[in-house]
Amino acid sequence: MPFPLLTPRLSIRPLTGADRADIFAVFAAPEVMRFWNSAPPRDLVEAGEWATYLEDMQHRLGYAQWRVAERATDRLVGIAGLQPLDDGPEVEVTYALLPAAWGRGYATEAAAAALRFAFEEAGLPCVVGIAKPGNTASLDVLRKLGMRPLGEAEHWGARWEKLALTAAEWSEERVAARPPLHTERLLLRRFVPDDLGPLADVFGDPMVMRFVGERRDPLDAELLAASQGPVRAQWDEYGFGPLAVVERGSGRLAGEAGLQVLAGGSDVELTCTLARFAWGRGYASEAAAAVLDWGFFGLVLARVMALADPANGASLRVLDKLGMRSLGTRWCNGAEHRVVALTLGEWRRRGSAAVRPDLPGE
């Protein structure tokens, strides 16, 4: 995983000695230092020493604390990465974000990228996380990442809540949630050229398309073929996109379900469009639950959103079954849509088994 580490919203790279102003900005915030394990740098000179130390750590160990920025603007978000815990053999995931970036899921997103690097690039057998008992926001991030509580421990001369995640736990969960995805009745896989004909039948049906896209019109074969370029570009850039939904028993293409970057922003959206023959059989709930497993456990996304036309009662019922919370309404694709969302922690606590594949109604 070469640097920069890219997530849907963030770009993460090693710090250099030239990043002293960024380090000073993050650690000069009293709200940040209230839960940190050392005193802040006193000035830009000392911040430069921190930056040089972290640059050297990256060269020595292959990991360190890194600069986290918004992917679209390169605006500083904070610092996150990996470091030896209390100068001992254990390695901890660490993050410190500017207060202006709090409450947006950035800490979970950055920490998830650090864990992925730890297990898939650095080959670490285990990563721990610590948070002061009163730091509920940080503890919530560690729990969202699936880290197991180990109780209190003393590090850096203070008492901390300590959690851990092993490489075996990480790999088992992620491998099971990578396409192709298998459910009781469905196979979700990458599209192949032979799927375009059956897919044209799905997207060429006016009843299917009455709530889909900005046009709300059927797509002919030419328009559908033209749409595949942007789809491939999203797969190349983000590592996710639409998946073909196939009936396992018949091999018949039932439609598509997957993830895409939400229009007009950087949030990730759950999508699902099924042929009429697949309606009312619980396929939408089954496919969407598998996609959420992929998004949260396979891709370690911090949050997944979904949009539905207020008149599309079937889709709204599916989203409700999945436990997605209402965020109000949003103008998108030329119409007002109901917006719902689910976080990694909420999905982990609920569990994909909460959606029964045989439950009809969509």
Tell me the layout of helices and strands.
Layout: E1 5-6, E2 10-14, H1 20-27, H2 30-33, H3 44-61, E3 65-70, E4 76-84, E5 91-97, H4 106-120, E6 126-131, H5 136-144, E7 148-155, E8 158-166, H6 167-176, E9 181-182, E10 186-189, H7 196-203, H8 206-209, H9 221-238, E11 242-247, E12 253-261, E13 268-274, H10 283-298, E14 303-308, H11 313-321, E15 325-332, E16 335-343, H12 344-350
Antiparallel strand pairs: 1-2, 2-3, 3-4, 4-5, 6-8, 7-8, 9-10, 10-11, 11-12, 12-13, 14-16, 15-16
Helix pairs in contact: 1-3, 5-12
Overview of this protein structure:
With 362 residues, the chain is α+β, with helices and mostly antiparallel strands. Helix content is 35%, strand content 28%. The chain is built from twelve helices and 16 strands. Helix 1 (20-27) crosses helix 3 (44-61) and helix 5 (136-144) packs across helix 12. The chain is elongated and about 65 Å long. The two termini are 40 Å apart.
